[in-house]
């Protein structure tokens, strides 16, 4: 029944994979659902809020944005355009007026005719002729006014009364210069500011007030004020283009009013106003139907994450090994960290990111030690993506990328350091490297944020990363024995312990079968090199090779490498009896290893390192006397090698024994022997169950050739002193 159950589990490995993935998927979905699910409320307007409600999403409040835009447009006043040509025209009129005043004030030069009295006295006989003289004659006031009217035109002339024109014309030169300067300055300032129709009265009054404080006589000031008001006209007119441009600019300056995820919409006990009710409706907290969408999205997300693990399970892990203990171990290593992350995400600590303390690196280390590096990398990606949702502060739609990046790099750093476990202190190295990686990631986050942090805060955050690395190391050291012993999972650290030369079984081989001990060391060296050449587990091949012939200790002297100085005991046995003893060493080895609670993987090597090959020497010897002897009685019970490592050990075991038996090994002989053994095993179907490729076999052949030729290379024959 027991064997039958094992066969059923082995034949349906894909079912085990699917069941494991389904359990992981369900657990992950249940843990993440509260981080994406949005609770809806049945709330009436003007009721009291029973709890504080936060926005589950980030969304624009379009109504509020439109309200602010309307206010911004309404705040934009009419825009006017100042016509500087009007300013120039009016200032030119002032200049014309004062030039005209200069003209009319100039005296008129006229001819004055009169008789010459002296000539009449002296020349009584001559005719009386009049004398012509030029004289300057001042114009009369009416003449001046008439001339001004003709020079300036009717409109300008009507700006002042007759009395005011007389005042202007009577000003002294200094007064005229002062009046001109003052009037031009006042008008120019008013025109430059722009004068609209509505502003014209105010501007005229301002002009009058300014002129009032001049040092000129009052009558002149009054006249200038009248003239200035007459010349002060509208020069700023409404501009549609400028007004529209200003309104458009005002619209663009209004920022969209966003409701941020996590923002408090209403607090407990607060009255639900119309605005609050509309906000709740906008973010979907009143819509029962929208709750299904996040769940559907979460389902897709979970499927993607589980697919990452499924890829690793399918290609890198035998989940049926030891009645599914590997599957159980992976379930623990997946669900327990997720539960711990969920618990830590629920703890609210102000200004502290608790995910920095999550000892997730311990999971990557355990998977790397118990399984394979590729699977550990896939798990690192799985946990980092899950962390982005788990640590989103329960804000649906939000992702905590910092948590995801931190957890990803924390795991990758440990995986790469554990790429090759060669000593017991490797875990300590991993803790140190993990501390360094965590500190660098945390410091990068703090510097990228471009915020002002105190040294106390920085040291606290970095300290969290260091504490996480230490906790991860402690967790690995504490839990690794559980997986190794209770779940019977073989790790690199356990292999290193088994490789200790002081191990009781290794001492047993050394003392009881020293030739087998030396043979095992040679096979270990060859197997490790060959496995590393094809990407298999070299450390496992080395350690398993140490114990693969432990069964020979049951009858050590029946194996040729241990027959030192004694007669071969097979000379006294029949071929069938000798074959029985030789064939039994694989099962004897499995029995001894099982009694000493060795990992099943090493027990399998003891069983499989000869596969179902034929003990040809005794078979052909028996066939000489019994032609009808059954071949099956001279074949090893097997099974055939089931893994690449087991197949490599099988090849190396035969190759080492064959090369050692050569009297004068050369490179050509060694290469031919290696190829012959590999071809023989292939033709016998010994590699049918181990997934070795032809490329792998070529690499194995080349590696064994290089290693053995390095061991059995030709040496210089030193001269004999006696001959010399």
TrEMBL record:
Residues 512-667 form the HD/PDEase domain. It comes from the Bacteria. Coiled coil: none annotated. InterPro entries: HD/PDEase_dom, HD_domain, HDIG_dom, Metal-dep_PHydrolase_7TM_extra, Metal-dep_PHydrolase_7TM_intra, PgpH_phosphodiesterase. This is Cyclic-di-AMP phosphodiesterase PgpH. It holds the Pfam family 7TM-7TMR_HD. Residues 113-129 have a biased composition (Acidic residues). PANTHER family: CYCLIC-DI-AMP PHOSPHODIESTERASE PGPH. Keywords: Membrane, Transmembrane, Transmembrane helix. The lineage of its organism: Bacteria, Bacillati, Bacillota, Bacilli, Bacillales. The chain crosses the membrane at residues 12-33, 292-315, 327-347, 353-371, 376-395, 401-418, 430-450, 462-483. Residues 109-133 are annotated as: Disordered. It comes from Halolactibacillus halophilus.
